[in-house]
Design a protein that fits this description.
- The structure is a homodimer of 319-residue chains.
- By secondary structure, chain A is α/β, with parallel strands linked by helices.
- Chain A contains nine helices and 15 strands.
- A six-stranded mixed beta sheet of chain A has the order 3-2-1-4-8-7, with helices on both faces. Chain A has a six-stranded mixed beta sheet with strand order 6-13-12-11-14-15, sandwiched between helices.
- In chain A, helix 7 crosses helix 8.
- Chain A is globular, with a radius of gyration of 21 Å.
- At the A-B interface, strand 13, helix 4, helix 6 and helix 7 of A face strand 13, helix 4, helix 6 and helix 7 of B.
Chain lengths: 319, 319
């Protein structure tokens, strides 16, 4: 019987609504991967609940007493413990170091990656994906991470110089959950690309009129019959993504030819489409950038053997 | 004992959350005024509930079997009955006429003023206030009606040519009711003028960055310590009003020297302050413009004697 490869590191991308967990061998190679709906909203703000949650997520992986490294909202005041923020501009490879917080876990310390802040914005979790993007050579273009709180990041030589946040996903969900726009929206159904494009074009062309006006159009158009209730969701999706893009381009101060999109395929496809309407191409890497970033930080922290940045560290970790 | 003056008209500005009711004599002079929290959200969408609601609101005024005229959301599909819309541009004095819908009320027909629509917007109730503004000679400047769904109207010689809607009040309430911005906001307290002005300046200066980003700053600034939880509401209020103003000015296509503000004193004062930061003066008339509009329409409809537009019609109505 072949000897089982022991788990050397459990790496966690532990966010608001879910936790993606990886079991890695001493070479940083994945042995397993799980996605669990145990985000910090579910686990709660009591730090005492987190060792048990980690045991549920990582399960038998912990039998090998691996090192544990986590990025994301788990390192916030509403998560396991507040791991603080590094100030931008920050060299992403330096996220490992004294600012990594260690808390007692079920089988040894759990290391929490700090977030990054500016005067007007904070991120947790994205900094590790951005490190992965920089390590993969994807940081020449602006990096866009669409989501509940989308981020647009500017990187130079592995340094995160500044970023811009847009609450696109949160506002989309909020507007369709309650209020006068949701009243005229049909339940979710088939995607209506024409409605999506219509919203996107309206958002791109009339951004100067302001989102307070453009969003409300979704309701008014149903009342006057120029939009169907089944089209409201996609019209709004196109409109909000267009508004995010228009605002982010103004923040960038220049119009890039291309951006890097990091995120789920369906959502990134929506962004690619609106970016295309704005004359900007988009590249979506196949790599798991959070994993790439976590493995790099683990090597920096000597949680894994091998030179940082080496994907194939050959030394075995002594235990 | 002096003879009591009979109520010739009950005029109603009947909106989403409340109903303002006026008892008028045959000369169109007010005999009484009431404000009741019986908006259409409370009364509901069953037309059969409205005669009873009117009896509750108008009470003993109905003993004289007056004519009844109502404007506002009561004439919507979610109110008593859908009174339809007139298409802008529309001569406001012509709102009376065949498009006024009559429904059976507790003591005779109730006349419902239609709303006004464009391709992208609808209004109900504001058209009657705008008629009042036009009759009062207040329509040389753009007329701004701040609120849940603020309206900016352009009038020329008594004709409503076009209007712009911003869901400022609704979004403000929504953002402070739930979601990640509300999580960092302290409960309502004393107004913080510095926070309000800070939000307003941010909204005026950085409108190009987009509301999806600027609103989220309210949260991020608390997390990084540059805004206090007690300041979030006023920061957001200034920011959203500034965003509305910036968008509306772009819609107007020119920067007016002055606008007319129609609405409650406290809210109009907030708008006046942000308009001032943008270099625009604001005039708020003392007149009750909805009442002025309703009296005019009542005369047009022969619900009151006297020439339309005459505030002192001398003929007594024969009954």
């Amino acid at each position: 019987m072949a000897q089982r490869t022991p788990v050397a590191l459990v790496a966690l991308d532990w966010g608001t609504s879910s936790c993606r967990a990886y079991a890695l061998d001493a070479d940083g190679q994945p042995l397993g991967q799980r996605n669990r709906p145990l985000g910090i909203l579910t686990v709660g703000a009591d730090p005492a609940a987190y060792p048990q949650a980690l045991a549920e997520i990582a399960g038998d992986w912990l039998d090998d007493s691996p090192a544990v490294l986590a990025c994301g909202m788990v390192g916030s005041a509403r998560g396991w413990q507040d791991a603080g923020y590094r100030e931008a501009p920050v060299a992403l490879a330096d996220l490992a170091g004294p600012s990594v917080l260690s808390v007692p876990g079920p089988v040894g310390p759990v290391h929490l990656v700090p977030g990054v802040r500016t005067v007007t914005g904070v991120m947790r979790g994205e900094e590790t994906q951005l490190l992965g993007a920089a390590l993969t050579g994807l940081d020449d273009d602006p990096v866009v991470l669409p989501g509940t709180h989308s981020k647009w990041a500017q990187l130079t030589g592995g340094t995160l110089t500044d970023f811009h946040t847009a609450m696109t996903g949160e506002l989309y969900a909020m507007l369709l959950d309650r209020g006068t726009v949701s009243q005229v929206a049909a339940p979710p159904g088939e995607q209506d690309r024409a409605a999506f494009d219509g919203g996107a074009r309206r958002g791109l062309e009339r951004s100067a009129h302001g989102l307070l006006s453009l969003v409300f159009e979704a309701r008014s158009r149903v009342l006057v019959g120029s939009l169907q209730p089944e089209q409201v969701r996609d019209f709004l999706s196109g409109l909000l993504i267009a508004a995010e893009i228009t605002g982010a381009l103004a923040w960038l101060g220049q119009r890039p030819q291309q951006v890097t999109l990091v995120g789920g395929e369906d959502l990134c496809e929506r962004y690619r489409r609106v970016l295309g309407l704005a004359g900007i191409s988009a590249h979506r890497p196949e790599e798991d950038l959070a994993l790439t970033g976590l493995v790099h930080l683990a090597r920096e922290l000597r949680l894994l053997p091998g030179a940082p940045g080496s994907e194939q560290g050959s030394r075995r970790r002594s235990r």
